Amino acid sequence: MQVFFRNDAIEAGTDEAGRGCLAGPVTAAAVILPSDFENSLINDSKQLSEKKRFELQPIIEETVSTYAVCHIFPDEIDKINILNASIMAMHKSLDGLRISPEHIIVDGNKFKPYKDIEYHCVVKGDSKFVSIAAASILAKTYRDLYMDKIHEEFPMYNWKKNKGYPTREHREAIRKYGITKYHRKSFRLLPEQLTLDF
């Protein structure tokens, strides 16, 4: 895994988590690494166990130059659609950095210009660049903690386990109990859904 896309610029990596979920926010993180950064344990968050991600979270927070995390919630997702909400979350996490980046690398293939700063989209970037991988771990752990918290309010959906993803169990709970304020109303919440009565 490479540390930097460009060695001659202050570079931020950014990624999001929760794009395909039926409930909860889409969460993004942005990370700037110091020029001498070394950590062989960081990998794409999807390749790591939950336990390993939570072990790495404080290590990342203590060793990177600066990081920021941002949630965009379902009411906003429903207004502007999930792609725009994902990009907004990444932009807002970049806003939160204590150091201004001169170059941005983004996981995936969709992004919108941010403050005239040069950027590159990298497909599967979270398995190619350390800063994107670190951002993916922070986005995932912060989002998971949020889902654990709202699970206490609506335990019947078992968000502690499924984190809002469209598992069979989650869909069954929607069928049985209806939806909550944390569900994304613009998403197809049930396979046979044509319209939902709100």
What does this structure look like?
- This protein has 198 residues and is α/β, with parallel strands linked by helices.
- The chain has a domain at 11-148: Nucleotidyltransferase, domain 5 (2-Layer Sandwich).
- 37% of the residues lie in helices and 16% in strands.
- The chain has helices at residues 50-63, 74-80, 82-95, 130-153, 159-162, 168-177, and strands at 11-17, 26-32, 66-72, 103-107, 118-122.
- A five-stranded mixed beta sheet has the order 3-2-1-4-5, with helices on both faces.
- Strand 1 (11-17) and strand 2 form a beta hairpin.
- Helix 1 crosses helix 4 and helix 2 (74-80) crosses helix 3.
- The longest helix has 24 residues, at 130-153.
- The termini are far apart.
- The model has no long low-confidence stretch (mean pLDDT 92).
- GO terms for molecular function: RNA-DNA hybrid ribonuclease activity.
- It is found in: Cytoplasm.
- Pfam families: RNase_HII.
- Its EC number is 3.1.26.4.
- Residues 9-198 form the RNase H type-2 domain.
